[in-house]
Amino acid sequence: MIPDKLNETEIRRFIPTLDMPVCIDVLDCIDSTNSYLKRRPSSERIQICCAETQTQGRGRFGRTWYSPSGENIYFSARFRLEGDAALLSGLSLVSSLAVIHTLKTFLPNAPLFIKWPNDIIWQDKKLSGSLIELIIGHHYTDVIIGIGINVNADTKSHAFNEKPWCSLYDISGIIHHRNAIIGHLIEHLYHHFIQLTTSGLEPFLKSWETVDYLSGRETTVLSQGHTITGEVMGIDKSGRLVLKETESQIHYLSSGETSLTLQNKP
Ligand code: BTN
């Protein structure tokens, strides 16, 4: 089976129940789908951009996101929040849950996990990552959620020694339809975003526990220039990582300022 070309009409076939107007820009090549949406004027409509390839795909902490043409998903969504930006606390976790719920539609039995705050992991290899950026206006906040999913990439021919990665093709042995995945992703992402901004993180906590990759593991974190090693005890009600250094020293870490190294890989 040949991978599908990205196509707006095809994507729209998979969002029949979305009750919000959505603008979908499908591009052959762009510097970064996040940067593209950042340059667009604000809108009350949901804005989506996806591209066959990115020349300057961006990851967290200034890293580059490898974006070979025609194989994977490079996707960004821009949503407007009229309320207080504090309602967005936990957004990176909730976006990752939306990715997991999307992928479960296509791979119901695959053991997928989230490495806090937003790496999707299969067999200790990275399948997907996301980059969230905010644009603060006078009376609203625009949120850009950028998601990269390795779909049909041949990961063996392009190995990154430091950062093991995998694709949906590695998991299932079949070529996947990117337009269908993108359609489902738009639905899940939007509904998760609405639930987070109306009800907070609480409704997602049970779901998080079932996919938490780090819980119970020895981990070293670099946070605000300090290195701390301890056991991960899950997340708290606002989505911070709970790290037990000693019985009396518990740290609560926010995602923006923390990078992680696992001590004992399973
Ligand atoms: C990470 O894991 O470091 C985040 C990776 C985010 C990559 C996606 S690909 C689509 C969107 N556009 C970008 O430039 N980055 C995000």
Question: Any overview of this molecule?
Answer:
By secondary structure, the protein is of the alpha+beta class. Helices cover 24% and strands 33% of the residues. It has 6 helices and 12 strands. It has helices at residues 8-13, 33-39, 91-106, 168-172, 178-199, 205-211; strands spanning 22-30, 46-54, 73-81, 112-115, 119-122, 125-136, 141-149, 218-223, 226-235, 241-246, 249-253, 258-262. Strands 1-2-3-7-6-5-4 form a 7-stranded mixed beta sheet, with helices on both faces. Strands 11-10-9-8-12 form a 5-stranded antiparallel beta sheet, with no helix packed on it. The radius of gyration is 18 Å and the shape is globular. The two termini are 35 Å apart. Bound molecules: biotin (BTN). Residues 32-34, 54, 57-60, 63, 65, 74-76, 119, 129-131, 146-148 line the site of biotin.
Topology (SSEs and partners):
Layout (H helix, E strand, L loop, with lengths): L7 H6 L8 E9 L2 H7 L6 E9 L18 E9 L9 H16 L5 E4 L3 E4 L2 E12 L4 E9 L18 H5 L5 H22 L5 H7 L6 E6 L2 E10 L5 E6 L2 E5 L4 E5 L4
Parallel strand pairs: 1-2
Antiparallel strand pairs: 2-3, 3-7, 4-5, 5-6, 6-7, 8-9, 8-12, 9-10, 10-11
The structure holds biotin.
